[in-house]
Amino acid sequence: MSSFSCWDLPMALLALLCCPGSGEEAFEVHMWPEQLVVESRGSLEVNCSTNCAWPEAGGLETNPVKTLLGNHTQWKHFLISNISQDTVIYCYFTCSGKQQFKEVNVSVYHPPKQVTLTLQPLRVVTGKSFTIECKVPAVAPLKSLTLTLLHGRKMLYNQTFEKATPDPQEAIATLNVTAHKEDGQHNFSCQAELDLRSRGGGILRRTSEPQALQVFEPMQDNQMFIIITVMSVLLFLFVMSVLLCFIFGQQWCQKRIGTYEVLAAWRRQPRA
Ligand SMILES: *[C@@H]1O[C@H](CO)[C@@H](O)[C@H](O)[C@H]1NC(C)=O
Ligand SMILES: *[C@@H]1O[C@H](CO)[C@@H](O)[C@H](O)[C@H]1NC(C)=O
Ligand SMILES: *[C@@H]1O[C@H](CO)[C@@H](O)[C@H](O)[C@H]1NC(C)=O
Ligand SMILES: *[C@@H]1O[C@H](CO)[C@@H](O)[C@H](O)[C@H]1NC(C)=O
Ligand SMILES: *[C@@H]1O[C@H](CO)[C@@H](O)[C@H](O)[C@H]1NC(C)=O
Ligand SMILES: *[C@@H]1O[C@H](CO)[C@@H](O)[C@H](O)[C@H]1NC(C)=O
Ligand SMILES: *[C@@H]1O[C@H](CO)[C@@H](O)[C@H](O)[C@H]1NC(C)=O
């Protein structure tokens, strides 16, 4: 036991860390890019390479169709096309009888192509509730999707999806809101964001058409009622007065005619 000094263990660790293999360079295989995201039915290029000077064999194992674009001793360049589902591709080389490979996961996405926002109802009285619904058909992966409901530039609600199915699905976000007086001043909209950064991609965003909400004051409704009542009463009085005028006018005429008849009868009387 005493043969181990305090220095031996750290020195051994250091040697392990700094000089692995401690001789010729280890045989390695690389694939570039290291993470792949592709739109459904899309294609991408990969470069499969090795540090082995004279590899005996090398290539790519894939399910989707592959095309060799560049064939060199130390690297091979491929086009993989019509990728329709998540897959794993393998790049391999054989050097001095030993085989090494590198695997890369390919994630397929369906971008949010269509974002629809609906307000139900479109006209609402202050204090009453209305529903905001956002729909995105056939989007994937749902795990990377966030639907944000916006009022003007203000974020009202974020909807995320925990379901891990890789198949494209319809994504829906709904929110029930109480109408405020100022809700009619800004439009409502919905933003769909597919964040593929953890899979080696970027962020894809699409926003719905803006939707306007018409908000009414309950007071306004009372005022409308009063105005309509007053108008009705005025109209009634007007019609009545016209009618009365007409009736009284008729009576006056008849009186006049009656007088004439008396006069005529008097005129028709033979003069004595
Ligand atoms: C593939 O990778 C190798 C090694 O990194 C590089 O020398 C070569 O130029 C690359 N080929 C293409 C087409 O990018
Ligand atoms: C690629 O090149 C090697 C020689 O460097 C050759 O043996 C092999 O057949 C070529 N492969 C294709 C698919 O052209
Ligand atoms: C692409 O793949 C799908 C199924 O994976 C197949 O139905 C379709 O015919 C393919 N298209 C092409 C152009 O190869
Ligand atoms: C590929 O995906 C599997 C699971 O889907 C995971 O376990 C593995 O670590 C991934 N490989 C790489 C290189 O990201
Ligand atoms: C929604 O998520 C964004 C970031 O994605 C964040 O800035 C915002 O505060 C969130 N809004 C709500 C209402 O949770
Ligand atoms: C919103 O309200 C409707 C009926 O008013 C109800 O059916 C629905 O479940 C509510 N939705 C949410 C997310 O609260
Ligand atoms: C709301 O959207 C409509 C189009 O749908 C637009 O004409 C109007 O200017 C927008 N209003 C505001 C306040 O942004």
From TrEMBL:
Localization annotation: Membrane
Assigned keywords, A-Z: Cell adhesion, Disulfide bond, Glycoprotein, Immunoglobulin domain, Membrane, Repeat, Signal, Transmembrane, Transmembrane helix
GO biological process, one term: cell-cell adhesion
Top-level taxon of the source organism: Eukaryota
Signal sequence coordinates: 1-23
CC terms in the record's Gene Ontology section: plasma membrane
Bilayer-spanning residue ranges: 224-248
Primary localization class, coarse: membrane
Gene Ontology terms for molecular function: integrin binding
Membrane topology summary: Single-pass type I membrane protein
Residues in coiled coil: none
Limits of the Intercellular adhesion molecule N-terminal domain: 24-114
Protein family per UniProt: Belongs to the immunoglobulin superfamily. ICAM family.
Protein name from the UniProt record: Intercellular adhesion molecule 2
Protein source organism: Orycteropus afer afer
